[in-house]
Specification:
This is Protein YdgA. It comes from Pseudomonas wadenswilerensis. InterPro entries: DUF945. The structure is a single chain. This protein is α+β, with helices and mostly antiparallel strands. Among the domains are: 1-167, no CATH class; 396-503, no CATH class. Helix content is 32%, strand content 45%. It has 10 helices and 22 strands. It has helices at residues 2-53, 110-114, 136-141, 310-322, 324-332, 344-359, 396-403, 415-428, 434-454, 485-503; strands at 60-70, 74-88, 91-105, 123-129, 148-154, 160-166, 169-173, 176-180, 183-189, 195-210, 216-232, 238-253, 258-274, 277-291, 294-309, 363-372, 377-386, 404-414, 459-461, 464-472, 475-478, 481-484. The protein has a 22-stranded antiparallel sheet that branches. A hairpin with a 5-residue loop joins strand 5 and strand 6 (160-166).
Length: 504
């Protein structure tokens, strides 16, 4: 009786194993059939996104599928990344990178099972940069580990989970050295990569350069991070948030080996679209600046662009890219706008795109430029609202009047902050008498305040020296005084002449 029960159980287990094996084999066969199409679609989407990212630049990048060797349970793919006209310093370089990809077929790739990732997937990809004559020196820096490698899990719903690694690097020669901890980015994309999330991190790098004159430059960067949450628009590019940060940066340089330390460096970008209009907000921050052992302060800069007409902007960028060599030649020769030979149709199209861009009433703003010291904070903001003039052929004065509907700015200088900077300057110049330093600091803010009020360029509000400007409908409001544009220009010119005379 017990033997019969054992036989029944064994038969059941064996049957289950056969069913699982059959399911895995069928899944692997299905993957083998689907994989070529999935790779072609993924590569096409990647190239389209790269083209969008490089729009308006001379650099081009294209990923190609060189070969695909498919077996029942695995495949080997080879790719080539062609890069053309990449600007490196003052040189333009073109090169190719070759990658090999070992692909495990689903539904249960062995590498995922070992990592206890048991959700079925179509395939698990493991790609790496190949070593060849062009990359041999790079491999030498990474101790023969592939410098670029990554993993991608392709879901049956066309979602992707990925990880990308830049290998650690070590280099030294003639007293100079570089040590980089490597960088890793992981991400998730849903079907067709309509929504993409990214996270990246690196412990940092240290660089020690010694020149022939024995001058030393040391740079140490710690705590690099990247986060992104992006959604694809109908126009082919992504909007959302992309944030980057560096926890600590220390640079030692110069004959006296002065030390500059920065903490809390951050760049936070946000892109939004409302229909066919794009808005962009870019924040740049540094939480703490220290130089030569002395606390300097903290700073922030925030730019924004609003109501940018996307089709018009893309058309103008595409036109600029088509004439890029002419613009580059003019810049190299120190000229302004190049003398472009344009057909009537091309001229009409560019003007139409410019007017469509202006018809959306875009706004460009420096929302905040601030600097904070121990005892005070100064701020500046500026914004200009644009509109579509009746014609781009109007006389300059009338054109600007119709083009700029509103301009406003405000500068607020903190007298205590000016004093802090005067104190630092005195200390850097070697002044050690505390009484003299304190007196100079107190006088600095008051001197700037007195000069600003006497010239009528600013008002004093408490501990702040404030200048305001507002322009609309051909009239200027400068520090509460209304005047025409011509009168405002006269005031500025008169003060500029007075300052030059004083300086002389």
């Amino acid at each position: 009786m017990e033997a019969k029960q054992f036989m029944k159980k064994s038969t059941g287990v064996l049957g289950l194993a056969v069913v699982v094996a059959a399911a895995c084999t069928a899944g692997a066969w299905y993957t083998g059939k689907q994989l070529p199409g999935v790779l072609e679609t993924t590569i096409a989407e990647s190239n389209a996104q790269t083209k969008q990212a490089l729009l308006g630049m001379e650099t081009t990048m294209e990923l190609q599928l060189v070969s695909l060797d498919s077996r029942l349970f695995s495949s080997t793919a080879k790719y080539r990344l062609k890069v053309q006209n990449l600007q490196v310093g003052e040189e333009s370089k073109s090169f190719e990178l070759n990658f090999v990809d070992q692909i495990e077929h689903g539904p249960f790739p062995l590498s995922r099972v070992k990592a206890l990732k048991l959700m079925p997937v179509m395939a698990a990809s493991h790609y790496a940069l190949e070593k060849d004559a062009a990359t041999a020196d790079w491999f030498a820096l990474t101790k023969d580990v592939s410098p670029l490698q990554g993993q991608v899990a392709y879901g049956y719903d066309r979602s992707m989970d990925s990880a990308f690694q830049v290998a650690p690097i070590e280099w030294s020669k003639d007293g100079s050295s570089l040590k980089f901890s490597g960088f890793e980015v992981s991400g998730h994309g849903n079907e067709g990569a309509e929504h993409v999330q990214l996270t990246g991190q690196s412990a940092g790098l240290s660089l020690n350069l010694v020149d022939p004159d024995s001058k030393v430059l040391k740079v140490e960067i710690k705590g690099l991070s990247l986060t992104g949450d992006m959604t694809k628009t109908p126009f082919g590019f992504y909007v959302g948030k992309m944030d980057m940060a560096v926890a600590d940066t220390v640079a030692t340089f110069g004959d006296e080996q002065k030390v500059l330390a920065l903490k809390g460096l951050a760049q936070n970008n946000e892109y939004k679209n409302d229909g066919d209009k794009l808005s962009v907000r870019m924040e740049y921050k540094v939480a703490d600046i220290n130089f030569d052992g002395k606390a300097i302060g903290a700073g922030e800069m925030v730019w924004s662009l609003k109501r940018l007409d996307i089709p018009a902007m893309q058309a103008l960028i595409g036109w600029y890219q088509s004439r890029l060599p002419e613009f580059q030649k003019a810049a190299a020769e120190g000229e302004g706008m190049p003398d472009l030979a344009m057909t009537e149709a091309e001229t009409a199209q560019v003007r139409s795109d410019v007017q469509r861009l202006l018809a959306a009433k875009p706004q460009i703003a420096l929302e905040n430029l601030s600097f904070k010291t121990a005892n005070g904070e100064s701020r500046f903001n500026f914004s200009v609202d644009l509109a579509n003039p009746s014609s781009l052929e109007l006389p300059p004065q009338e054109l600007y009047k119709q083009l700029i509907t509103q301009l406003q700015s405000k500068l607020s200088l903190s007298k205590p902050m000016i004093g802090d900077l005067a104190t630092l300057q005195a200390q850097f110049e070697g002044q050690t008498d505390a009484a003299i330093v304190s007196q100079q600091a107190a006088q600095a803010g008051e001197m700037v305040s007195m000069m600003a009020v006497q010239s009528q360029m600013a008002k004093v509000e408490g501990n702040d020296i404030v200048t305001t400007l507002h322009y609309a409908d051909g009239m200027v409001d400068f520090n509460g005084q209304k005047m025409t544009v011509e009168q405002f220009a006269s005031v500025i010119m008169a003060n500029a002449s007075a300052m030059q005379a004083t300086g002389g």
